[in-house]
Specification:
Helix 2 packs across helix 7 and helix 5 packs across helix 6. The protein starts with a helix and ends with a strand. It is globular. The strands form 2 sheets. Strands 1-3-2-4-5-6 form a 6-stranded mixed beta sheet, with helices on both faces. By secondary structure, the protein is of the alpha/beta class.
Length: 366
């Protein structure tokens, strides 16, 4: 009963915390690690919280790079690692973030979610349902011999970015969610890795490379031996294919977004934010089942699932969309992104290619 009464307060606190963290150091470069080794193990990491890399400027220093190198050190061969997820991903939306990606190419799947579910006091039954759905949905698409590891939620205090008055209650709820995760993985005969208090990087206001190196080492100790058993003499494989973009200009715009964004898009966004007095103005581009952002990626993730985005309605309808109050719109009543971000206002205008095809939108959010 107490957690139910506190939940709205914690949700609001978390949304406010995300706003404050927007100007804090976090990676904006590619979250994909490629070694060039044709015998490399291919690992998919789906995660938020520590996986996001708060407190370091590059994913190479965050969990993505640290885990890849730790696995390499234990297997003696390369590790090509892909990260899917963002701070705005939770257990209930993780399967949406994975989307339609072909998972048969991966030798290992590592799931490291739940920190924001602990911080927001997500009901245990909702967390269990979300975790079960993502595991069942992913395992069915992996090769039968692929390694699957579910990483327990690390202690809340190990990521000072989210420390505060909420910490004691969140720490207690984290333990309850981890017990639920243990039950779910045990029932499916999957590996569960408990994470004790992380000691490296203590004292940093966010996270530190040492924190992620410690966490990456713990995960690698579980995953690497299984990879060696599964692939004792790995064959040479063709390099992983680069993404094929639906619209030829998307790749260049997305690449610029990781470096601060195209100057003209940034100018237009700044003018729109001032003119309409909104928090964000964003250019979004659709590619497959994902929506990529062409600017403001210091605030927004590089991409989000199209089926969770506001812009899906602008693109599908090919007309401007205005939503004065997302909380009162039935299309977003159960949308995890709205629940996590507290975005209350949306206005979108369709963007077209030179051939007239709608390829994205210019949108205002507040």
């Amino acid at each position: 009963m107490a957690s139910g009464l506190l939940r709205p307060v914690f949700r609001a606190w978390y949304a406010l915390r995300l706003v404050k963290l927007r100007n804090y150091l976090h990676p904006t470069d590619s979250s994909v690690t490629r070694t060039g080794d044709p015998r490399a193990d291919r690992v998919l990491l789906v995660g938020n919280g520590h996986s996001h890399g708060w407190g370091v400027e590059s994913h190479r220093l965050g969990l993505t790079g640290q885990l890849a190198r730790a696995i390499e050190a234990k297997t003696g061969r390369g590790c090509d690692l892909d990260l899917i997820g963002a701070e705005s991903m939770n257990a209930r939306s993780a399967l949406n973030w994975i989307g339609t990606r072909d998972l048969e190419e991966f030798d290992a799947f590592v799931l490291a979610i739940g920190l924001n579910d602990a911080l927001r006091l997500t009901p245990i039954v909702d967390f269990e349902r979300g975790l079960a759905d993502v595991l069942d949905g992913v395992v069915a698409r992996l090769r039968p011999e692929a390694v699957v590891t579910v990483v327990g939620i690390p202690p809340v205090r190990s990521l000072p970015a989210f420390a505060g008055l909420a910490t004691p209650s969140a720490a207690s709820h984290r333990e309850a969610l981890n017990r639920a995760a243990q039950r779910i993985t045990a029932w499916r005969r999957l590996d569960y890795l408990d994470i004790p208090q992380l000691t490296n990087g203590v004292g940093h206001p966010l996270g530190a490379a040492a924190t992620y190196a410690e966490l990456g080492g713990l995960i690698a100790t579980d995953v690497a031996p299984q990879l060696l058993l599964m692939r004792p003499d790995p064959p040479v494989r063709a390099p992983q294919a680069d993404p094929i973009w639906d619209w030829s200009g998307t790749e260049a715009i997305v690449a610029l977004a990781t470096q601060g964004g195209a100057p003209e898009l940034n100018r237009l966004a700044t003018e729109a934010q001032k003119a309409f007095k909104v928090e964000l103005a964003v250019v979004s581009l659709v590619n497959g089942d994902r929506l990529y952002y062409g600017n403001n990626t210091d605030v927004m993730p590089e991409s989000v699932p199209l089926d969770l985005s506001f812009c899906q309605y602008t693109v599908a309808g090919e007309v401007p969309v205005l939503i004065p109050d997302t909380r009162a719109d039935p299309r977003f009543a159960d949308n995890p992104l709205v629940d996590l971000s507290y975005i209350n206002f949306y206005a979108g205008y369709p963007l077209r290619s030179s051939e007239g095809q709608v390829i994205g939108s210019f949108c205002l959010q507040g």
